Amino acid sequence: MFDSAIILIPAHNEALSVAAVIREVSQRTNCHVVVIDDASTDHTATVARKAGATVLSLSVQLGAWGALQTGMRFALQRGYRFVITMDADGQHEAADLSRLFTPVYDGQTDVCIGACTRRGSRMRKIAWVFLKWVSGLSMDDITSGFRAYNRKALELLSGRDATLLEYQDIGVLAHLKRNNMSINEIQVNMCPRLTGHSRVYSSWLMVAYYMVQASILGFSKRSNR
């Protein structure tokens, strides 16, 4: 089943955690693992290669979504039918990969999201409720980066219209919905980050920037549906 899938892991300064993620994935699947090194200033690329991943190194930091788009285009060039995305910080458990991937592999849905609404601070949960209301999206977890995509969704998200999106949540999900892609969720457990902290929810200033940007995007996408 996993022979037709590639796992993409965007990483920026995740040298302390990315090897453990790669090893766990390799123990659970035979997937080709690709780490997109988003212009890290530490040894993320070296550590990831030593752990057995293919590394695509970006010379300019594009953010998680830009890094994922790079990986998606790589997957299309290599002829993969499916893509699974995971974070490099150790939050996503490889034990859930089969449950996440099966609905997409079996053709039940175009996209499957590993949702964990129990996680996160009060700040994050308030943001979720507001952004779901603004955008009209019905998913429980709009920020999870633990996802599986089929080739149809992969071709859409690697295209030009998705290039200017900054985050992989509101804009990506609204873009999928607007193009009639089916999206399902499964409940998964997520671990605390092995190192570091969320770049979006690290301060009230960052949250304010994210909320304004996501709100405008969500409302505009909702108006166009």
Q: What overall form do the CA principal axes indicate? A: globular
CATH class: Alpha Beta
Q: Under CATH, the topology is which?
A: Spore Coat Polysaccharide Biosynthesis Protein SpsA, Chain A
Using only CA atoms, what is the Rg?
A: 16 Å
Instruction: Give the CATH architecture.
Output: Alpha-Beta Complex
Please give a handful of descriptors for the protein shown:
225 residues, alpha/beta, Spore Coat Polysaccharide Biosynthesis Protein SpsA, Chain A, 8 helices, 41% helix, globular
Explained architecture:
It is a single chain. This protein is α/β, with parallel strands linked by helices. The protein has one domain (2-223): Spore Coat Polysaccharide Biosynthesis Protein SpsA, Chain A (Alpha-Beta Complex). Helix content is 41%, strand content 16%. The chain is built from 8 helices and 7 strands. A 7-stranded mixed β-sheet has the order 3-2-1-4-6-5-7, with helices on both faces. Helix 2 (44-50) links the parallel strand 2 and strand 3. Helix 3 packs across helix 6, helix 5 runs parallel beside helix 8 (204-223) and helix 7 packs parallel to helix 8. The longest helix has 20 residues, at 204-223. It is globular. The chain starts with a strand and ends with a helix. The model has no long low-confidence stretch (mean pLDDT 85).
In short:
This protein is α/β, with parallel strands linked by helices and 225 residues long. It is 41% helix and 16% strand.
